[in-house]
Every structure is written in structure tokens, then in C-alpha cells.
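ARCHIVE CARD
Drawer: 12
Card no.: 0347
Subject: one protein chain, sequence and derived structure
Cross-reference: see card 0346
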Amino acid sequence: MGQNLILNMNDHGFVVCAFNRTVSKVDDFLANEAKGTKVIGAHSLEEMVSKLKKPRRIILLVKAGSAVDDFINKLRRCKELQEKGILFVGSGVSGGEEGARYGPSLMPGGAKEAWPHIKTIFQSIAAKVGCGEPCCDWVGDEGAGHFVKMVHNGIEYGDMQLICEAYHLMKDVLGMQHDEMSKVFQEWNKTELDSFLIEITANILKFKDSDGKYLLPKIKDSAGQKGTGKWTAISALEYGVPVTLIGEAVFARCLSSLKDERVQASKLLDGPKMTQFSGNKKAFLEDIRKALYASKIISYTQGFMLLRQAAKEFGWTLNYGGIALMWRGGCIIRSVFLGKIKDAFDQNPELQNLLLNDFFKTAIEDCQDSWRRVISTGVQIGIPMPCFTTALSFYDGYRHEILPANLIQAQRDYFGAHTYELLSKPGVFIHTNWTGHGGNVSSSAYNV
């Protein structure tokens, strides 16, 4: 990715000095991929710094974990850096190697004084959408850029799992073959679901191995992960935001990793007696498409809820429409759908929830019957659909004025004297002696 970003910058007229801790990689890069370009190399940090014009602009790309800390200790960061007159920016980068080479989505945040010094570079190399708008803009202070990228990756987990659930229903409920499924995804890519992930799914389904057989069935059904979806779910728990779909997507990967146990369980555990679909195949395919679209709306709704809460926690001023624009091109979750999110926040920058926007409200209403039919059928046949089902549960919970949480509060007060509020007296916390011998002393109130 680092090499491709350098080549991308070179293409846009910027002279870049390349350095790697493994110095031989610099020489290999200059002799091969960067041959014939204006890229220059350095064999030490000191040499690299000496070759840069002031104000020096240094981009670090290092793996998450100890490598980051070890390397940044040599250059320090944030407030310590500001004291030395050095401005630190943390930027999310999405789009993989190809995006880095031809136009990624970039999400910079940190010391805003740095933005004028790097804006032209970042916006030149970023992906472009619409009438040439760059998929890059200033996100916010401190860690805002990386937080936005983390949520992007969490949504990516959700999108991928939702597509997998649609694929599972096609394969095991409708008995569709790979070429047939590929054509369906190609058609879906001409609808509201038009996106990078739908596009590559169509290509993956029809891809054949060197022996002429489809490659996908040969791949072990155990999904890996690098942690960004997990971090998103952990952040959601920390800030009390019900980002249930991304959480379920992470757990679905965890469950998939239990391959040996699942093989054993498949021989011992029975499923439902109903295993065949007897309805209209074409109609059910359309139901699956709508269920996927509705669930996708919920996933992004939850993601933006988390961004809004994080902004409150850290005092960030986030441009939610701008974030949607940054994600419209170059990144893994790029899709036409994101344009509608930008429109929603452009219409109302203070929008609390995407479901309260007229476009998304109408879209969910149009998909709702199909969504429920798909989940009902899948449950009856025994197909796991963690993200389809949690999306619908969230929607049903969000639209209910009254939830059974009053019983939870009563239970908590009964066994732990945790108190409760009455609807008629908001803000007043009460303890009841439910048994007649529990006493009237309540526990001190606290929230986690």
C-alpha cells in the first residue's frame, strides 16, 4: 500500500522520498516499480529528513500494534509533537492496494493546522466521485480520522456478512448454482445495491479454478479478521450505542472459525423438519434483495449513530454528509447508496438517525414485508441469518414507544435496590420494598 501511494503521488506531480526500515526494500522499489519515476530513496531516517523541503511532510504507514509504537517513538506524537512544532495527523486509508495506487478514500484527522500543508496532496491522490469531488476532507481533531476509518471497517464487516447471508439463502434454500447466483448479483448491482462488494461477489461466484471447477466451494468456510470490526463493537459497548449488526458480523466470523466443532455438531444436532422451499423462486429472490437493502440501511444507521456519540464524547465536530461522500469512492464500502446518506445529512445536519429521514423511512417501508418473509422462511428452514435478524430486531425496537425494559428496571430494583423512574416523574429515582422485608435503602446510582 505504501509503494502504491508513492506511485499515486508521483503520478500527480509530487516528488516523494521513500524510506523503509528494511533498507533493501527501498532499493528494490526504486529498481522495479518506481523505475523511471521521480521517486527518490533514503537509507536512514536522517537521510530522508535531510532530503525533504520545509515544512517537511512525512507519511508513516506501519502495521497496527507494537510496530506503530516502536516506530512513532522515534518521531513522537500529538501533544508532545506540537510542543516541538510538529503537527500530527492520523488518517484512515481505505481501498486496499488498488485504491492506494489509483485513488483511495482518505480520512485525515488531528492537528488541523497541518491540513493546509497536506490538503492538495491528499485530495489530488484521492478517489473522485460526481463532478470530481475528492473522497477526502478534514474529519476532525485528534483521533477522529482513524475512528471514522474504524467505523468504515465495522460497516464493511456488516456488509460482507449480509451478502453472505443472501448467498446462503440462494444456495441452500433456492438451490441455485454459481453462475445463476453470479448473474443475480450482477443484476442487483444495477439497483439500489450498486456497490463494490456486490460487484466483486458476482465475480467471485463465477470464478473457476485451473481445473475448470468453481473455486468458491473449495475455500475453507472459516473467516479471518484483523480486529477493526471488533474494535467498532467494543467502542459501541463503551459508548452505549446499539451497533448490533456489526457486533453480530464479528461474532459470525468467530463462529465460522469453530470449523472442527461445527463439523462434529453437524452430525449430532438436528434442525427443523422443513428443509425445502415450496414458494415462488423469483419472488423470493426479490424478497432477499429487499431484505439485504433494508438490513444495509440499518447497518449504516447504527454506524452513524456511533459516530455521533463519539463526537459527543470527544468534542469533535464531524461533517456526516462529508464522511458519506468520502466513502462513496475508493473504499471497500463504496456504493451509490452513500449518496443518499450525504443527501440526508445535507438536508438536516442535525439528523439524529437515518431512519427519521423521509428517503430511508420510505425505503424501509417498501422492503419491510419482504424482509420479514425472508427471515421467517430462513428460520423455518434452519438458515443462520445473524445480521438479517438483528437488523430487523433493531428496527422493531427503535420504532416501539414502549419496550419491556420497565420489567428489567423492576427486576434490578427487586434484587439489587437499583431504583427506577416512573413515567409520571422523570428524573426522580425510586426504590420499592417489593417483598416487605427488603428494607427501604437503595443502592447508589451509577451507569457504565
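Annotation on reverse: The mean pLDDT is 92. The chain is about 55% helix and 5% strand.
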